[in-house]
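Schema walk-through. Below, the input block comes first and the output block second. Nothing else is stored per chain. Lengths vary across the set, and this one has 234 residues.
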Amino acid sequence: MSNEDPVYADLHDHRGSPAQTLDKIIEWTLAAVLGTEAGIVLMRAKNSMETFAPTSDLVRDAHDWQVQLSEGPSFVVLDEVDHPSVIIGDTAEDPRFPTWGPKAAELGLRSVITSVLRTPDRRVGSLNVYSPEPHAFDLDDLEAVDVFARRAARAIVIAEEAQGREVALDTRKLIGQAQGMLMERFRIDGDRAFELLVRLSQQHNVKLRGVADLLVRNPSAGLDELESMLPSAS
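--- output ---
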């Protein structure tokens, strides 16, 4: 596939939420490679894996089996630097995956391409394409998914960073609104109002955003009533 491929142009221009981006990646992948099922595995905290945008429950089940068994192509591409991609001709017979492979075959997923999603800084997850037919994919398909995965990884990071900025902005606005309410209610300045929010956050082991949100949602509540709504400090 060339850099001028309209699929890649669409990916480059796409600006959506992380969930929308993942759905688009799957749509474009299945347009580029003639698989019938696909899904994305993303790395989360403490090296856990989570499935996103599966085309069916079969894909989710296959990914769940990888996590339960600590075996499968996603583990290979995420753990082994020298193996950025894996192609499986027949999950029922591949000796590399003696436990997960038969499970995938029982689900009707016989051929697999898994490619790492990575940026220059980190490994984001894996892009997985499946077919019910054994030996459905060739090396050209593998190369296509590899190239696409590199571009898709960047799109995921851009979407997550944009969402993070939006969340941070919303948090600042919410805290500012809560500060203003405290200033008006108690006739105190902005610093004192912020200190009060911080004290409530620390005493009740609740994030500052959570305290601010509670205050904004209960504008008529007194301070004692607000404290009663917060969890008791352990």
